[in-house]
Amino acid sequence: MPVYSHSRISCFEQCPLKYKLKYIEKIRPEIEQSVEAFLGSMVHTCLEKLYRDLRFQKIITLEELLAFYNEQWEKNWNTAILMVRKDYAPENFRKMGESYIRSYYKKHHPFDSSRTVGLEQRINIDLNDDGKFRLRGVIDRLACRDGGTYEIHDYKTGSSLPPKKYLEEDRQLPLYAIAVKRDYPNAESIKLVWHFLPFGQDVTVEKTEEELENLRIKTVESIRKIESSRKFPSRTSKLCDWCEFRPMCPEWAHVAKTETMSLAGFMKEPGVKLVNRYVELMEKKGEVESEIGKLKGLIFQFSKDKGVNVVAGSGHDAKIWRAEKLKFPGRDEEGRRELEEFLKKSGLWKDVSSLDAFLLSKTMENPPWPEELAKAVEKFGRKEMIERIYLRKKDGPGD
Ligand code: SF4
Question: Counting CB atoms within 10 angstroms of each CB, which of 176, 248, 270, 391 has the fewest?
């Protein structure tokens, strides 16, 4: 079984296809990094330098640190870095990094509230003590104060400030806490400290033994789920814009290819032509359907007003059918559970219930049953390719 990491598990949760491309097929994409990730790594490098210098009793000045940051930026910048937000230039991002460093420096100077124990410290955790569920990670800065309090520091350069509740449910730092507890038996307490650099805010959370144990169990479950997955479907989200596999992802490959075409070339592209024609007809169909809906209402009203069941037309007559029927609560509607219980108790259930083939087919996408049982059920089905078209609205400028 491979060694897992928080980001590997998160990748599966975000999009199983991305997970497959990255971790199973180990494809090296052309785009390796977005500008946001590059900025994050440059800022991390700087803060690492700041604390590394401190170990040698040197407090680097803010000017020196910013000069180091800019030097690293110049040295490592390359044109393959992905710029998703087209309204901003690399220079904007470079300046953002400068401001994060400046505000962190001013807030924490002279950096003596805790003693640094490790920088970019690698940790390994055997989640089940059987070597099967191994996890590794890197702590941005591990620090210690008053002898027994350890702090796991994590620098965040993302553009959002998550509510504390979200952080209380975070997986990454608590997992690292499990490793720190094991590696530093003198640790009386462990604090998890997130530094949200764009906001100049630090958030500290402590976890109980019970919470860490629950997290360990949950993480083992997540890994088991990944290991037992046979299908890796794509899962689109806002994050696709930053996905390095977008140009080869079946959800986006054609979009990505056509994005770079000239307008004339784009309009002649066979796929574009097909979809444009389809949308044109669907729009007409929508108008026709709404007109039909309105006419149906008028014909019903006409038949009621005139007290007739057939309304005459030139080529066709319209026969109106009306019947009163009992309507019972649908699957998720109020009263459904009570109705089912009543029918079961009265022995009427088998007379009115039948197999829900749709539900069975949906359940078989990821059967919660033992493999043998799922295979036995599978034999009753036949594989059929289902094809549908869903239209996805393109983001307009400024969306
Ligand atoms: S572009 Fe989106 S759907 Fe495609 S692999 Fe990446 S995250 Fe998944």
Answer: 270
